[in-house]
Design a protein that fits this description.
This protein has about 450 residues and is mainly α. It has one domain: Amino acid/polyamine transporter I (Up-down Bundle), CATH 1.20.1740. Helix content is about 75%, strand content about 0%. The protein is built from 18 helices and no strands. The longest helix is centred in the N-terminal third of the chain and has 33 residues, at about 85-120.
Length: about 450
Amino acid sequence: MVEKEQWTSKLGFILATAGSAIGLGAIWKFPNTVATSGGGAFFLMFIAFTLLIGFPLLMGEFFIGRSTGREALTAYKKLAPRTKWHWIGYLGMGTCFLLLSYYSVIGGWIVIYFIKSISGGLLHNAVPYEQMFQSTVADWKMVLLAQLSFMLITIVVVGQGVKKGIERSSRILMPGLFILFVVLIIRSLTLPGMEEGIRYFLTPNFAQIDAKTILNALGQSFFCLSVGVSVMVTYSSYLSKKESLTRSAVSVVGLNVLTSFMAGLAIFPALFALGMTPSEGPGLLFITLPAVFEQMYGGGIFIALFLALFLFATFTSAFSMLEILVAAYSKPEQPARSRKRLSWLFGAIIFVVGIPSALSFGPWAEVQWFGKSIFDLADFTVSNVLMPLGVLLIAVFVGYRFPKDKLLAELESEPAWWRKGLAVYMLLIRYIIPIVVLLVFLNALGLLPV
């Protein structure tokens, strides 16, 4: 019998899991959400909701994965045999498949911009940055080549396995990400006039808080931890029974909150010091930040560092999305061989499925479904439909279907306060979290009058 592969250490698991969770959303979505939701007040709510909502959901996925020692699909079958609950695993796999198909397009854009930054062709151009971005994403041949290179690196890393591929890469990329953050924060905090940015980011403005702001903070609290797609079920299945799930989850949550905090310190002081305002998603990374760094001394070096940081975060998330698919179909008797074959198979299919998203800014820009481009429709489907639905179903599964004896068995190696606080946890996971997630779900679909 072939022994199941495991993380070599708790640190490797934490770095890989945090890398999966951090991704682009915590870095480029967070600043814009803060800017439109009350600054420091939103940040405080985000931290509170991450602890009260995100942490219990993360623990729920950890319980499912570690208790079974199986990936997402088999784990639900093992815990609830002869039922339809395993469709949560299929939902997570489908979500990751679709997400990676257009996520790899963004990864390709970052590759292009990173190459431009180190070659000196990004800053100090006569072409406005907005026009540069539009012409870049419209160049479908270059975009497809960059997307392909991004997927090839992801395939090779995942194909090497949990220890030699994902864990080894995360041990390099995650510390590198935080080192780059520190360098950029130091530079941002040395700019004249940066105090206004810090004040805006960390000073609560409760006058701007309304129902929609609260719902946005709730949504950010569980999206930032990558829960709802069963990736954490798969990753925790590789964790030794000797390790504490609670300490691991606290570390992952802490790293995500720290990343959001560092993103705010790196971006807001620089933006306010140079008289600019945050913008969302691609606008922040490819238009606003180049304009900011252009005005800095040594801006070419710092924009290259920032793009490297984004690229690191994008890769660590991409690894987990491909891993959930590969792990579900790897053959136990030939783990290494089947893993490599499946990595190439799924990676190739994902690349092909992602081509329409890549072309939706160029030759297929006029193609619209439901008033959205192919790229935007894929993003809307994942962010506003599939992920909230996955979170809701996992919360219900943990609250009502997860075998109590297995839950108690998992808690034996956890801190003593868990057994005392189990009733509170079950109250949250059974009643509070499903209602909260449902409200976030309806808000994301525009069905709430807020």
